[in-house]
Write a sequence for this structure.
C-alpha cells in the first residue's frame, strides 16, 4: 500500500473508534508493518479453534462471523464492516479463535503478527495502542449487548456510555505523565 493509502486507512480506523482527532501517523506506521491480503467473497479469514497468530485490521469490505453449534454446523452470529479490528482479543491473549470469519464481500485486510500487537500494547507511547484498546472495548460492549439481546434483557449501559468510555480512554492518553 502507498503511504497515502495507509494514512487514509488509519484515519478511517481512528474515526470508527471515536478517535477521529488523533494523529493517524502512528497507526499508519503500524499498518505499514502488516501483511496485506485481499479476500474474495466466501474466502476464509480464520477458522474457529485455530491459533490466533495475528491481529487483523479489516480495511475494506465485510466479514461474516460464524460459530459452530452443538451439532458442529457453522451458524452466522454477526458481521464486521470496514473499518474494524477483527480477532484482536485472541491474538493478544495468545488464545485460539473463538469463531470463524469469512469474507462476506471482496475485502482487504492488514494482518499484524500477534507478537507485534502485544508489543504495541506494552508500549505506552504510540497512539496505535489506543485504537487497539478502543476496539477491544467496543467489541466487549457489542458482545455484551448481543448476549443481552439473546437473553431478552434490557441494556443497562446505553451505547452512548461506550462512546464516553472511549473518549475517556483517548483523553487519558493526552494527559501528561
Amino acid at each position: 500500500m502507498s503511504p497515502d493509502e495507509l494514512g487514509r486507512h488509519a484515519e478511517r480506523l481512528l474515526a470508527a473508534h471515536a478517535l477521529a482527532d488523533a494523529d493517524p501517523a502512528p497507526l499508519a506506521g503500524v499498518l505499514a508493518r502488516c501483511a496485506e491480503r485481499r479476500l474474495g467473497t466466501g474466502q476464509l479469514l480464520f477458522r474457529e479453534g485455530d491459533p490466533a497468530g495475528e491481529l487483523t485490521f479489516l480495511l475494506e469490505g465485510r466479514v461474516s462471523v460464524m460459530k459452530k453449534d452443538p451439532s458442529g454446523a457453522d451458524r452466522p452470529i454477526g458481521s464486521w464492516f470496514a473499518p474494524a479490528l477483527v480477532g484482536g482479543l485472541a491474538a493478544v491473549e495468545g488464545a485460539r479463535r473463538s469463531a470463524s470469519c469469512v469474507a462476506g464481500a471482496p475485502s482487504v485486510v492488514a494482518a499484524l503478527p500477534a507478537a507485534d500487537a502485544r508489543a504495541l500494547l506494552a508500549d505506552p507511547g504510540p497512539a496505535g495502542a489506543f485504537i487497539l484498546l478502543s476496539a477491544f472495548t467496543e467489541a466487549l460492549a457489542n458482545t455484551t449487548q448481543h448476549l443481552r439481546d439473546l437473553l431478552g434483557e434490557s441494556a443497562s449501559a446505553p451505547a452512548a456510555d461506550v462512546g464516553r468510555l472511549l473518549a475517556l480512554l483517548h483523553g487519558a492518553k493526552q494527559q501528561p505523565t
Summary: Confidence is low (pLDDT under 50) at residues 155-162, 164-177. The two ends are 35 Å apart (CA to CA).
